[in-house]
DNA sequence: CGGGCCCACTTGTAGTTACAGGTTCGAGTG
DNA sequence: CACTCGAACCTGTAACTACAAGTGGGCCCG
């Protein structure tokens, strides 16, 4: 299997290791090498591409981190099986859609809806400058009349002009984002913790301040890595549980 | 701020970069450097610890990946803001593998390990008849010495003969399942809730019975839909949060 | 006093060498 | 024939050098 590789450019526009990483990734994703098939050794790649082992190792390190390959000391580097790694395939949506399908009556009440300036936490999560305009939403979601979820959402105003005036009652925010702003979520990070609510949140959720709740922080982004939404949700888990599927 | 660092051991038991990474991480997590405060430059660290810049860069790279620091070209490395947000990557595994990679000392203590007959919950989750033999495990996982996770696992004895006698201390259960029984997890469902521990569990986790914990129920299955594992895990979330990446 | 440039310092990239430690496989030995 | 042991090969760790490229402060000049 003697592949012909495009030569690497040494004009300094792009690091050698990145070019090499791309070349190897393209080859792997093309499927030329099956799962668990070995890549050429570092020394061989070094010769093949005319670069130092430093560059080769840097490129392989990146591929390992992307979980496209794995390395075994003393043996070599191998194509990782299951190109779609097992991951949490959670409801990308704010869960409204899923619940609706289950035949329950889901209502969403907007408690607050306003323009504001990003505080430190929002700026960090959304990767925007401190003080940049954001649309803030505080929404209470009920299922069959019972308080379920209290969500504080922040979105960069630049991405969603006019959202501070949109009617969101009983709508899925993700639906609005998709239809009105063409926003297609690509991925998200979420952190889940067990917390107590403060007095105000407890009142809205109709629980005592000593009821343990799920606190869920989330940041979601587009294909191009633009962060478009950050939220913190308080989830009553005394009646139901938060579901995560992994496929 | 002239810190006194413990000297690095050169006996080869642990790579220099990992020792250095640990030393820097301990310092950062102790809080002596505030958020966005600069670390010593690579050259300074090199001198301070008497190692090459190679070792320093390797250690810093690891800390960047753990999101404890960030680097800016031409300026330096800085303590990342956001609290001690220890990373807990959720993939398929029981989290042991992921944590181990982050260079922390993960120990697993088997509190109980026995054969038994499936109760109603286990039978329903595993889709086996009531009373069929199951292997039950109760394991306590510590990270850097601190109790982290208490897991009650049930597996159909038919699928894992002899597991009730296997030595599981400090091993990843998923590793054992894979190597010894050829079990390859294909998917899983998980439900997360916020709960209080009972007295016994609280004692094991070294928290009070009024500390809110994450309760995680999980059932995992093979490609052919055979359920091979059901567990309920209690997760301390006062020190770290449960992370879910959605891609 | 203001502006621009240079220099010192920083991280990033790339090359080199050396050796440690794990894996594989075949030659030689009992 | 089985078994061992070493050679060859692999990745991991560590050292060194060199230069590119970004940052920031201070000095000099107009």
Characterise the protein shown here.
The structure is a homodimer of 247-residue chains. Chain A has seven helices and nine strands. About 6% of the residues of chain A have low confidence. In chain A, α1 crosses α3 and α2 packs across α3. Chain A starts with 15 loop residues before the first helix and ends with a strand. The first copy, chain A, folds into two domains: 64 residues, Orthogonal Bundle (Arc Repressor Mutant, subunit A); 140 residues, Chorismate lyase, CATH 3.40.1410. The relative contact order of chain A is 0.11. Chain A has 247 residues and is α+β, with helices and mostly antiparallel strands. Chain A has a six-stranded antiparallel β-sheet with strand order 3-4-5-8-7-6. A two-stranded antiparallel sheet of chain A has the order 1-2. Chain A is elongated. At the A-B interface, β6, β7 and β9 of A face β6, β7 and β9 of B. The structure holds a DNA duplex (30 and 30 nucleotides). Chains A, B: InterPro entries: Bact_HTH_transcr_reg, Chorismate_lyase_/UTRA_dom_sf, Tscrpt_reg_HTH_GntR, UTRA, WH-like_DNA-bd_sf, WH_DNA-bd_sf. Chains A, B: It comes from Microbispora siamensis. Chains A, B: Keywords: DNA-binding, Transcription, Transcription regulation. Chains A, B: This is Transcriptional regulator (GntR family).
């Amino acid at each position: 299997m003697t592949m012909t590789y495009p030569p690497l450019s040494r004009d300094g526009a792009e690091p050698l290791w990145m070019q090499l990483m791309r070349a190897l990734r393209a080859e792997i994703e093309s499927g030329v090498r099956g799962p668990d098939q070995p890549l050429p050794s570092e020394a061989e790649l070094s010769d093949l591409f005319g670069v130092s082992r430093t560059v080769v190792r840097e490129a392989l390190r990146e591929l390992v981190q992307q979980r496209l390959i794995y390395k075994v000391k003393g043996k070599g580097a191998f194509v990782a099986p299951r190109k779609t790694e097992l991951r949490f395939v959670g409801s990308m949506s704010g869960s409204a859609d899923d619940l609706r399908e289950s035949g329950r009556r889901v209502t969403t009440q907007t408690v607050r809806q306003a323009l504001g300036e990003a505080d430190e936490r929002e700026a960090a999560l959304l990767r925007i400058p401190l003080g940049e305009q954001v649309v803030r939403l505080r929404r209470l979601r009920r299922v069959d009349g019972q308080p379920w979820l209290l969500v504080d959402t922040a979105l960069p105003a630049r991405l969603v002009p006019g959202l501070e005036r949109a009617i969101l009652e009983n709508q899925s925010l993700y639906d609005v984002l998709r239809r009105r702003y063409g926003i297609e979520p690509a991925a998200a990070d979420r952190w889940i913790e067990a917390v107590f609510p403060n007095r105000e949140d407890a009142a809205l959720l109709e629980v005592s301040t000593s009821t343990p709740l799920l606190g869920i922080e989330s940041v979601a982004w587009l294909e191009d890595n633009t962060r478009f939404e950050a939220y913190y949700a308080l989830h009553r888990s005394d009646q139901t549980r938060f579901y995560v599927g992994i496929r």
